[in-house]
Write a structure and sequence with these properties.
Layout (H helix, E strand, L loop, with lengths): L1 E4 L4 E4 L2 H13 L8 E6 L9 H14 L5 E4 L3 E4 L2 E4 L1 E5 L3 H9 L11 E8 L2 E9 L6 H17 L10 H8 L2 H18 L19 E7 L1 H14 L3 H17 L3 E8 L16 E2 L2 E4 L5 H7 L1 H10 L4 H15 L8 E4 L11 H7 L4 E8 L6 E6 L3 E7 L5 H20 L1
Parallel strand pairs: 7-8, 11-14, 14-16
Antiparallel strand pairs: 1-6, 2-5, 3-9, 4-5, 8-9, 10-15, 10-17, 11-12, 11-13, 16-17
Length: 424
């Protein structure tokens, strides 16, 4: 066990980000382990040899510093911050760190009774070589987890951290309820309201007739050619590869579904303010990206998509209660449920864009491969594209609305669209 003692305890409302992921968890349970994720820290050379006691002390200080790591979900739901406790520790001797992380992440958290970070030490003899951390998404998002790893590395090297902790979820919940927070929420809600009164009710509305058991499947396309093409297009159009790929996904959704107006929900980090940039909490929320695709070519859409992407980013920092109200009112007024069920999540930490040579793209095409790494019964969405490292694009979809064959066709079609546009 790793013991810790923090500075404060109490309850507070969920932040907007916590509420958003809590709602997603409720719609996905009992397959909500889907939202678990993790990090592996190799003990830095300057901290070796690192004993179990030394690394345990570092993890304990980490949990004391970041209140999200010792916050449970209480009835309400509310943040239930504890000021002391013991964090279970697993010792994995001579194990493969990635396998340990997979095991730690494989089961859903007990949100009311389990600390939202699981910890394992990989050891060789008496020395800790790696720290494996599995996170509950209610405690942190990907960028928050990077802050955790950075702080733990420094704690192992120096034994302490200079400066006070960053703003905590308790503080963020207070700001979001303040007049300034409400002004932000009202502005975002107005945009959601306007778009919900005119956008198609949903993107994937025609049953596939080819449901699998279980119905939810993920295909992962490893495509260096798509990655190189996105970089070439980003430089050519003076934008980011994320914008290129989001626009390409929207354009292809329009082609596949026949919708001339396409709505995609991109996951946005919401770390644009200095006060939240280094916070360990879950800030990511869905924005609203509306693309008037019509019959336009992808490259023409890319010229025009910049303002729509900015509006999507601004709309992501919203109060989920306002969004629920907007969706309910629009659905009632239009006489049908309104929800895109179409998501886009760029999980990369670096958006690299270099003007790549055409021949380099052509030579990369034979390296494309496709795999099926995941299947499960429930998901809170019908269609979600994830961008990962190593030129990977994943599509997780409900086969009741998009068959496995169509999932594969979509990913290969996305690669083709990017490559043809880059070489045109």
């Amino acid at each position: 066990m790793i013991t810790f003692t923090g500075a404060r305890r109490g309850t507070a409302p969920l932040t907007w980000g916590q509420r958003a992921i809590w709602d997603a968890i409720q719609r996905t349970a009992p397959d909500d382990h889907y939202f678990n994720f993790g990090r592996i820290l190799e003990v830095p050379r300057g901290a070796r040899p690192a004993s179990i006691a030394h690394v345990s002390r570092g993890v304990g200080l980490l949990v004391e510093r970041h209140e999200a790591l010792r916050t449970l979900i209480g009835p309400g739901p509310v943040q239930d911050l504890r000021d002391r406790g013991e964090l279970p520790l697993r010792i994995a001797a001579d194990a493969e760190p990635a396998a340990v992380l997979a095991e730690l992440s494989a089961t859903a958290f007990d949100y009311a009774g389990e600390w939202p970070m699981r910890v394992a030490f990989v050891t060789r003899g008496d020395e800790v070589t790696h720290v494996v951390l599995a996170f509950c998404h209610l405690a942190s998002d990907g960028l928050g987890a990077e802050e955790v790893v950075r702080d733990l590395r420094l704690l192992l090297l120096r034994g302490g951290l200079s400066g006070g902790p960053p703003p905590q979820p308790f503080d963020l919940a207070g700001w979001q309820a303040s007049p300034a927070g409400r002004r932000q929420a009202v502005s975002a809600a107005a945009f959601w309201e306007r778009e919900h009164l005119r956008m198609p009710p949903t993107m994937f509305h025609v049953p596939s007739g080819a449901a699998e058991h279980p119905p939810v499947w993920r295909a992962t396309l490893s495509s260096p050619a798509a990655d190189l093409s996105a970089q070439r297009l980003a430089v050519r159009h003076g934008t980011s590869t994320s914008t290129v790929l989001l626009t390409a996904v929207g354009a292809l959704v329009a082609e596949v579904t026949g919708h001339e107006s396409v709505t995609v929900l991109p996951i946005v980090s919401n770390r644009f303010r200095a006060s939240t940039r280094t916070s360990v909490t879950t800030l990511s929320q869905e924005g609203l990206f509306v693309l008037e695709a019509g019959k336009a070519r992808f490259t023409d859409l890319l010229v025009e998509s910049g303002p729509a992407v900015l509006r999507a980013y601004r709309s992501a920092y919203h109060d989920p209660a306002d969004r629920e109200r907007v969706v309910a009112e629009a659905s009632h007024e239009r006489g049908t449920p309104i929800h895109p069920y179409c998501c886009f999540n760029d999980m990369r930490f670096v958006d690299q864009a270099v003007y790549r040579d055409e021949e380099l793209i052509r030579r990369a095409l034979p390296e494309t491969s496709l795999s099926w790494p995941l299947s499960q019964d429930k998901l809170n969405c019908r269609f979600c594209v994830h961008l990962g490292g190593s030129a990977q694009i994943s599509l997780t979809a409900d086969t009741r609305w998009l068959s496995r064959a169509d999932i594969e066709r979509f990913l290969l079609g996305l690669e083709r669209m990017l490559v043809e546009a880059a070489l045109r």
